[in-house]
Target: Putative 4-hydroxy-4-methyl-2-oxoglutarate aldolase
Amino acid sequence: MSIPDQDTQELLTLGTATLYEASGLDCFLDAAFRPAWDGAQVVGRAVPVSAQIGDNLALHHGIEAAGPGDVLVVDGGGAPFGYWGEVMGVAAQARGIRGLVIDGGVRDTQQLAALGFPVFSTAISIRGTIKQWPGTVGLAITLRGRVVRRGDIVVADRDGIVVLPAAEYDRIHDASRSRAEKEESFMDRLRSGETTLDVYDFRPLGSPIRDPAR
Model:
């Protein structure tokens, strides 16, 4: 499925936390995935790639296979190698690829920031790679317990990453809008002085043991 431009901005505004909570799914990636440069954020269709540890040939094939609106989602075994850098960022950007999520390392983070190419990784590393195994491109992968399939919707920001199943996208999008609207009404009540205990109806859950001297 293609993602309309207005949806892209709306998804980023809603944010990964709201999308995850509204989804009702375990669709978040491990917290070890972090933006390689401050301010990175991306929305796009997943193109899964599996690479051998310390070998980035599969990522070059991934650049060729992906296109406008896609995000490369790579299983690099979590290894701290520099699988990706400025050269590959330029090549990917020229093809309309929106970003990279990799369980592994990247380098040239300052240059990637200057390009405005969003990258999320589990390591920053200058360690070199070999180019021997072409890997897999487009086949489902599992990243730290999460299955990622081609066409899933990837949303990544400074809080984290969600991978939304394509078949569930419309439902999650609508549920996220509703959640955001509800939370805004809660914000109004909080600004007026109500407590979170009352706004979220937490009082029936019990009261803490308090220091009687205070």
